[in-house]
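Fold it.
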Amino acid sequence: MTSTAPKAIRIIKTWDWGVRLFHWLLVAAIALAFLSSEEGSALSPWHGSASWVAAILIAFRLLWGFVGGEHARFANLIRPSRMAGHVRGLFAGRVHASLGHNPLGGIAVIVLLALVAATTFTGITGGEGGHEAIAYILLAMIALHVVAVVAMSFLTRDNLIGAMITGSKKTTHFPSALDATPPARLAVPLAVLVVAGSAYAATRIDPQAFTPGAHGEAGEGGDGGEAGEADED
């Protein structure tokens, strides 16, 4: 009778740099947008610029969902065949760690991306009522997302926040796992083109897109008042 020795715990690459950079820049952009949304706030001049930065980040993430690393790709986020089993397991108290996003987490990412896109679009186009409503839905989804991440980190003893910072995980729960497939060879040049093209498009739509406070000053002066009101909302 032979026994197999347990495999040594290793550190493997999980999240590529593109996903991590996008994640934390979007966190900063959304936080700044919410903190600057109140008129008269010291940060209010940055509201419009933060919204445009969020829009560019969404464009980047849409591309990265096709050319990014293994766990960044939409094909690994949307897995309907695993959803039912995952949900049944949660209700039965069976919680398992996942190398990338679990099925519910993948859907949550798609919903959050859609809400950020809708919030920025309605803010840029001046849809005041819809913009505010969608923004509060986004805020609620972000709160739910944070609670879920903390809960799953605790229940599975898998540091999800740390992994999104370092890009790596221990193989404690995945003894046979290997490094995630890296981004495609053309991922970086394509990402540069998308970001540069999106920034250029933003300045064509709004020449002062990245000038903090420009819209408020324009509105006070009487020129471009509608654009200023839209961005401040």
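The beta strands are 11-13, 168-170.
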